[in-house]
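Um, can you check?
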Amino acid sequence: MKNKYNKNLAEYFAVTPNFFDGDKQKKPNIRKCAEQPWQQTNSEMWDEVTETLCDLNFIQAKCAAGIGYYLIRDYYLAMYSFPEAREEAQKSIEDEQKIRKYRDDLIAFSNGEISSLDIIQSIQPWTDEEFEDNLKQNMNGTTHLVRIRPFFNFVNSEIQVLTENSHIKGFYIQHAWNFENEGPLVNKAEKLLKQRTETLMLNHPSQRPIYNQHPALLRTIKLDSRLIGVDLECKRAFFADSGVFGVLDIETNQWITAYKAYENRIERAINSASGNRIIASYTSNRYIKDHQDNTVKIWNLEDSKLEKTIIVKEPIENITATPNGNIIVFADKEDLTYVWDIGKDECLKSFQSQIYINSISINPNGKYCILGGHGRGGNNYKKGIVEVWNLETGKCTQTKECCETSVVCIVIFPIRGYFLTGGADGTIKLWSLNSFKCRVTINCKSWIRSLDATPDGRIAVSAGDDGNVCVWDLKSGECLRLLIGHAPHIYSVNITPDGKRVVSAGGDEHTLRIWDIEKGRCIETSQDESGALKKKTMVLDPSKRFKFVPEENRATFVDVAPNVQFAISANVDGTIKLMSMETCECINTLRCLHRGVTGCHILSDNRLIVGSASSEDTSCWIEVLDPLKGESCYCLQGAEFLHRFEITPDERLLLLPVDYVGIRIWNLDDGQPFKTIKHNNQRVWNTSITPDGRKVIVSVDHESLWVWDLNTINRLTRLKGYFSEIGKIVTTPDGKTVITVCDSDKLIYWNVETGQFLRKFNESMSGNTKFAMNPDGKTLVSAGKGYLKVWDLRCREVLTKITTDAWLFGLNITPDGKKIVTWDDKNLKIWNIENNQCITVYHSGWRQIFRVSHLRPDSRLVVGLRNGDAIVLNAINLRLAPPIVTPIRLWLFGRGRFKGIWDEKVTVKCPWCGQRFSAQKEILDVILCITQNAGLKPAQSPCLELPKEAWEDPGLLSECPKCNRPLKFNPFIVDNRYNY
């Protein structure tokens, strides 16, 4: 009878819509999203529940309803209920029962209730052969479990991203299509893509991840507080920050409890093995007189009450406890160690260590503890030392020098008489407590910040500054798994007693990640120099010693060549790759003169200007390369510091600011020095070349702006009227006005012709660090920490202020001037300036975004990642207006001893094909008519003074005669031929 009611409700919800408002998708059907999978599972409607949980529209609706995390529960319930999965589900339940039994036995052992402890055996991770066999068996499978698993993997690992972006229409389809290159999930998304009209950012098909049926990364959870530990089952996580405790259910990402524990800052905190107690140490607030509180507090999480308070004289640096939480050991900043019995509420022992303590570990029965740190002075200073203390006698029984640098982590095995140490030098060592001899040494070449191991001593996990979690076989010292996904600096890592799962927490990115190290694997795709796609499986050959050398190989520069045939990606290690925009294959790989590419520029003839820094000294170089031939044309010696360089619009000169010298100018045709702008030992910070290429504005020592004539190398004028620290410089497209960031991020206008101070914005940029000029010259966009602003340069007011949830690393404006591209470390977004709406979001996953090229008129761009890769994105359904261009009469610099001349024709550079052409007479006549009717004086700026209606004249629309693509002209001409 019960199943009958479940079936009736399931059939009722199945015919109701996912959204009540149709295509708007703002009002999800919450009742349907919450109940439909549950009712179908309970009524054993296996085909129907499989169809529901494989429906991307239903997934998006449930995330939009704010209950996306319950999707994971729905998947687990369905997969455990399928007839073909009951055996596997029963095994999972038995495994959980074994861990709970081990936890209860461990607490009983620490209480002295039992004299022996049964150690749970850790698993053996799958091999490559087992992965391939399982994949072949399931690729053609038709069971419900095989059909639902790809969708479960997608939701389970991406639920945080799906929930955060559920308000973006079509995002779930885009993210599913980018998630893998084949499989049921991608097939479903590909069908839905043909029906969508929203703007979507799609990876090139060859750059999508390889299909992975058993991913190692199960889930990523965004944190707001510092992780202090997880329980033995890795199902609950404990957080503490600024006096607030919280307990999080990892499976559902739901807070079990969160409450204010105290006002002062929590310095150290741990949880007992049972998970019912939190032991926290607090520090004084040196700026508030009444907050002198160096205490240790024990909180009971079952009733949220404070059990004990221990007052000490000095701040607590390290703390540990027995599994039952009755005995705690903590050390203050003077390395005085206390042994405290919570039940008796008394200090059993206190002793003074002879080392600087970085880590404390105590054995389960509380008989001894091991202190790790480094020596105080003499020959032992900074050398890693451990001390073994008998807690009953309060005496040090062993002292041993372990590593070259400080001991950071210590793990004691429950009853086997072994312990692990992790050092700042990147070494992990297994020690015998009786003989104090090192049994195994592992060198992972990175600062070990956290360390954990299974109780049977077979498997250990480490994490540190390289951003990777390493799984080690302690018998052979080999790496079994390399789990990639965190940003640098992982501060905490825990492993379940059976070795199946690992939980890691990143410090800089504030994320919690859950890994499956038994059946899961990490797969990366990369291209070799020939362009062939290679699969790199992060399951290492046990016969080879694993050595990992951490190196951040971020993409420092990405851009698309003017002819749009290839893209350039330059990395920190000095490699430069050419990638086809059509096939995303590697065309060529170059090596610059030195490591450390600091800047690049692609000329219209496809030559590449590269700035690089020497790894042997502090000198910098400019190298001119022919990327298609793979040849170096010539090199220009730079200076001690290379901030950036600029190229004149005619692409004949390179301007290189040199500290305390001035600006060196080089001829790009032959690589010979042209002239030097000297500034009397003043430091040159920023430069900006006018659109016609005749003048350059120079910021000197942050406090003055000078205008120079590049042809005669004469200082024309100093921009007067305002004295302040000058930051970035940008010039309007008409070349009449210079805009700088001055006076605590204030925007200042200067007239280039007269050198006079014009006006200042009243509103500050609020810490914004990036800004870009709109191609029409009417607005300017700035981005920074939590803000995106659009400034009206004509009315001196902020038109738009958008609050973001991240620090924006950069921004670009689309060629039509109507949309903005912004990015942080994980998300790339396109915004509509007119309605302040986010059009689309691209999420990069664990691969952090570092550089982004300009969005081309054909809606393609290139994203450079922190791991050194570059990906091509195509924004489908992005409706861009014709790109805005400005007709300019260029100053053509002479070659060799020949003097420069003005170009005979007014030309335009096409954003589509990258070629420069002569502006049509019809267009020039329309522009001249607009400017004459406005009655502007020669010194006035058309960008700031022309009426808004001038840009709406239909006569400004034209096309490029080279590629026949549409263009829109600005209603002014940059022509300074008669001003000199």
User: Anything to note?
Assistant: The mean pLDDT is 85.
